[in-house]
Design a protein that fits this description.
single chain; mainly alpha; Growth Hormone, Chain: A; two-stranded antiparallel sheet; two-stranded antiparallel ribbon; disordered C terminus
Length: 507
């Protein structure tokens, strides 16, 4: 009886949060930070209403982008002027940003971060080794890396909403199909297919889209996209672990597929567009005088020509840095299995993922600030040292849920390195001249090798019989990363930057 009463209270709390938020949106009142915090607190008051909380969060995000009643209607959307303002106050670029964040949450976040919750229960049920099952993650990453250049070409030829929607459908169907699988090879097949989708719903589309919509604050917009995904992972991870425990992993896959469909498809079909011109608008922060000056500066961008960079030692050392960083950034997928193996339980593993995701919301902007203040090289060394501390905590805290969650949270410093760290590091080495070509090649090569991350971690555990040895291995990998960063910084002094010119031969 008590459980029924509790569930009833939790459901009513979630409904209260939803109704309150909808009231704000319909009456034209803006939400303060305190209002949002209160609403989220109400929604998350108990586990019984978790799934409804996603609906409420959607409404909260939408309420942030509108401030007048008629903006919530189709007719009201027609009142946006050429500057992209909704109701004369909020630029539509922020709607695109929020929509992209939800799209990333339901696709990339679901298929990578949340995938770790399924490894142990699936292997226990179908009777296979962890390293055997998780090989599908390697296949998925390899296909993703190989497809990235193709996606870059498609962005200029096919409407973004079409390829995003197609990719989202592929990923959602992949999740749903996983609920029916009985053999590891089935995951291998769907891993290759979903890798094609992930190549679209990844940073290769985020960065140029935000760059098109945001003439100013592009970095903030990109950071907010990742922050929304991290918030999603933090909220959904413990929820999906509870679903798996109560109803089984097959139901868990179906729930994630349904949730992803609700979050992603409305965004890709109705909200996201590649350029402001697609909706007859101007980018956020656009000013003709500023634009003229900016375009003038772009004609004189300095840096290393791509053909020169591809023949240089610093480039291949940077590939090594990217490879090793991505290799050890798979911990969120490993934590649920670790928690189960050491006896902490699957729910504790979900809490570890949540702790990491919450920290990631703050780590990415802080990593950007340290890079600006102390130089990208020093920032890379600092954040790598932080990850080394996290591995020590994880090694010593296997008997404590609290220590494990603290270690997992600090460990997300590596995600800050992968999100901000090595991109600013590479930019400081090679400049803006041909940065897109250089960095995309660097990440593509690095990702191919790093695709072995999850199976390698599981193999280390199975070969040694002690999961903590995974953290020992990663600790020494971090030492190598620091050494490579310092070596790259030293060797890069031989590179000679050039002004932007079509004449590569002068290099």
């Amino acid at each position: 009886m008590k459980e029924d009463t509790r569930a009833s209270i939790e459901t009513h709390l979630c409904d209260l949060g939803a109704l309150t938020t909808l009231h704000y949106a319909s009456e034209g009142d803006s939400l303060s930070v305190g209002d949002i915090a209160l609403l989220i607190a109400i929604v998350l008051a108990g586990s019984g209403g978790y799934l409804k909380s996603e609906r409420v969060l959607l409404v909260v995000i939408y309420s942030l982008t509108v401030s007048k009643k008629d903006c919530c209607t189709r007719e009201g959307m027609r009142h946006m002027d050429t500057k992209g303002l909704i109701g004369g106050k909020v630029h539509y670029a922020w709607v695109v940003m929020a929509a992209f964040g939800l799209t990333m949450s339901g696709t990339l976040g679901t298929l990578t971060v949340l995938a770790g919750s399924f490894f142990y229960p699936v292997c226990e049920d179908i009777g296979c080794d962890l390293s055997t099952l998780t090989l599908y993650m390697t296949i998925m990453t390899i296909v993703l890396a190989l497809a990235l250049p193709v996606v870059g070409e498609l962005l200029t030829k096919v409407k973004l909403q079409f390829i995003l929607t197609a990719a989202a459908i592929i990923e959602i169907l992949s999740l749903a199909c996983m609920s029916l699988f009985t053999e590891p090879w089935m995951w291998y097949v769907v891993g290759a297919i979903s890798g094609l989708g992930l190549a679209v719903t990844s940073t290769v589309t985020i960065t140029p889209t935000m760059g098109n919509w945001f003439y100013k604050r592009t970095g903030l917009a990109i950071g907010m996209v990742w922050a929304i995904q991290s918030a999603y992972d933090a909220i959904v991870s413990p929820m999906i672990n509870l679903v798996i425990l109560e109803f089984g992993w097959r139901t868990g896959y179906l729930c994630l597929a349904g949730l992803s469909a609700v979050l992603v498809l409305p965004c890709t079909i109705f909200l996201i567009r590649y350029r402001p011109e697609d909706k007859g608008m101007l980018p956020y922060g656009y000013d003709e005088k500023i634009a003229s000056a900016r375009e003038s500066n772009q004609r004189n961008l300095s840096g290393i020509p791509s053909k020169v960079a591809f023949r240089s030692l610093p480039f291949y050392l940077c590939v090594g840095v990217v490879m090793l960083c991505q290799l050890t950034s798979c911990m969120n997928q490993v934590f649920p299995t670790y928690a189960e193996v050491v006896g902490l339980g699957l729910v504790a593993g979900g809490l570890m993922v949540s702790a990491a995701s919450i920290c990631d919301i703050f780590f990415n902007p802080i990593a950007g600030m340290t890079s600006d203040r102390f130089s990208p090289t020093r920032s890379m060394v600092l954040w790598t040292l932080i990850t080394m501390v996290s591995f020590v905590i994880l090694y010593l805290g296997s008997s404590s849920v609290t220590l494990s969650c603290i270690g997992a949270g600090i460990n997300d410093a590596m995600y800050a390195i992968c999100g901000v760290g090595y991109s600013t590091f590479a930019l400081s080495l090679f400049g803006m001249r041909d940065f897109e070509k250089i960095f995309s090649r660097m990440v593509s090569i690095g990702s191919l090798i790093a695709s072995l991350g999850v199976p390698l971690m599981m193999w280390i555990y199975e070969a040694t019989g002690v999961f903590q040895n995974v953290f020992v291995f990663c600790f020494f990998v971090d030492i190598v990363i620091i050494g490579l960063v310092l070596l790259v910084n030293k060797k890069s002094k031989t590179l000679k930057w050039m002004q932007h010119s079509s004449d590569i031969r002068q290099a």
